[in-house]
């Protein structure tokens, strides 16, 4: 049986039910029906244009949900530009639309009863960079991008909604799986409206019509077409730099009467579970692969409330030290004493690669 899942959406200060299309912030929880123990995960998803109010409300509600689950949940902060492989594995397909829920899908009624976007809509379909992971071998992302010919990339497939017609533009280097997944997306789109569909390969002369519909001139689009993907992943260079990040352990504590965040173990120091005190909250930088927050069972309310802010502040500091590091893409997850995930237990005990410290 598949795990049970639920999704809520944070719009301004309100919590609303949601479908699985990603437009903003989401939390999910799951249980293992074959195990009597609740094994929840809460995924805290931040859209690229999430307001501070929405992010704050989501963080507050995450604390409430965790309390409802008796603190047993593993919490994960996800960012739109680099969702984790575990998060993508929850969905057969992730669709990210521009403009959020308030903008809707910008459809207008046609005389024949169908519908069409009031402006051209361009969707980019591609395998997510995390697809190399076995759990997300076919993780596909459908991402709405700026409707311009400069946004085309010959390595992916694009869907253009223009009036009552859907155009599929296949880049010359796109993969067979991307073509197949795009066909599924178009099929689902046709369930909502009657629309003619035309599929064009970049190698066909007629594919020029899509370039022109996206504002290109007679001389545009003949050379190599490349556009940066909106879901960037961590570049190989940045990944290598993050691997070189020191393994460090920090403590968040108010035992002195003031909340303080300080270094407990630095690079070269051995780190183990025995370093964790149940009266406090700890942050483990696992060699740049992930940032783990461990919450002691007897941690104070202030310590429990401030864990996310402390983790985000640490990431900002790393990013300020080296703007090219891409530290902002580092996954952040939180576990509670007594309900640690296997991934955390591996992170706290396993040493970094030789020469990387810790």
From TrEMBL:
InterPro entries documented for this protein: ADF-H/Gelsolin-like_dom_sf, Gelsolin-like_dom, Gelsolin-like_dom_sf, Villin/Gelsolin
MF terms in GO: actin filament binding
GO biological process: actin polymerization or depolymerization
Signal peptide as annotated in the record: none
All copies of domain Gelsolin-like, residue ranges: 37-88, 142-199, 271-345
Pfam families per the UniProt record, alphabetical: Gelsolin
Superkingdom of origin organism: Eukaryota
One Gene Ontology cellular component annotation held by this UniProt entry: cytoplasm
The protein's name: Severin
Record organism: Madurella mycetomatis
